Amino acid sequence: MDLNQLYTQKLTSPENAVKSVQSGHWVDYGWTATTPIVLDKALAARANELTDVKFRGGILMWTPEIFKVDNVKEHFSWNSWHMSGIERKAIEDGFAFYAPIRYSELPRYYRESKCPPDVAMFQVTPMDKHGYFNFGPSVSHMMAVCETAKTIIVEVNENLPRCLGGFEAGIHISKVDMIVEGEHPNIAQLGSSKADSEIDQKVAQLIVDEIPNGACLQLGIGGMPNAVGSLIAKSDLMDLGVHSEMYVDAFVDLSVSGKINGSRKNIDRFRQTYAFAAGTSKLYNFIDNNPECMAAPINYTNDIKTISSLENFMSINNAVEVDLFGQINSETAGIRHISGAGGQLDFVLGAYLAKGGKSFICCSSTYENKNGVLKSRILPTLEMGSIVTDTRANVHYLVTEYGKANLKGLSTWQKCEAIISLAHPKFRDELIQEAEKLKIWRKSNK
Questions:
Q1: Which CATH number is 3-180 given?
Q2: 245 is annotated as an active-site residue
Q3: CATH architecture of 198-437
């Protein structure tokens, strides 16, 4: 059949498309920048007809209309694979929940799930001449979603960048049940105009000093990883590669400055590999139809075997707090949810297994609470309810503005001493006293 004729047959209104959602259904909303907009609005309008509709998605970049309906808890619940600030608020409001999982495991989860999506609806690029809708900047786990969903509805957005890749980067029209169109604003942006802080710059310098020419980079989201990217752009480093869960603005800056060419990558040479992208307009413009950039599924980008095969792999991620045993919490503040497991542990493990590889967990040594009181991020033990993202056996380098320490293989007292050396001086004596109570303090004679 002619592709354009097939397109016309499957094209429908958002209002008609969302009639496929029934009470009790599981509905998949895609991922990040490709969360539906016109379908979401149409579905929210049906709220009073529906109960117990369970949504899955993650890293929301704007507030969906389904969050705004009256008595939302009576109609909808949101189940997130990874939290943004919007989703954190929804948890506080009682209708959102985190689904703990290593991000790399999502494709298998969907393919083996006992509760696959009844309906999947998400944004895609316009259909190409071969009949494919590209997943845009959210390749991630979307093919697994489509393989298991009972009904697939695509929402065409002409503003989405077309992200090229090796595999699982789009869906053919023959697999789609319904197509909707509509007015879309420019793609949502994720980023900050704030300049790097002095602390960010100090941490970045300590990390950049460890990066060799030809290294392959993974940068997490946040100020410090981006500060590392900014500093690399000004450095003498060259022939760098990219293999990352998330593609961020810093990679664009590094590409424009000529630091990235991928020539020394063991696999996917000359390609910047990533699972999803979110940032400012310069990022979306850069990845659009760019053959240098390779969008791939998350079970490839975050596979420890893939990561460990890349020589001189450098993984750089944030933490919320760390304790004197070397446990890293990057997900919560006590019982208050902040983020998610994501792929941090995959990259911590994979980077250490790579020849010449290093993983860095970085954070400021302190923060100010809502009352303006200075608090230490380095604690004797994690706060009650805090989640261990990286176990004490896995952490390689820990970095604050007061230095960096290779924690791998250290005895508890050695590790404790190294971690305290990275704490703010105001808190070190107190931490030593607590370490003595925990039986992990033995001052060295170095």
A1: 3.40.1080.10
A2: yes
A3: 3-Layer(aba) Sandwich (3.40)
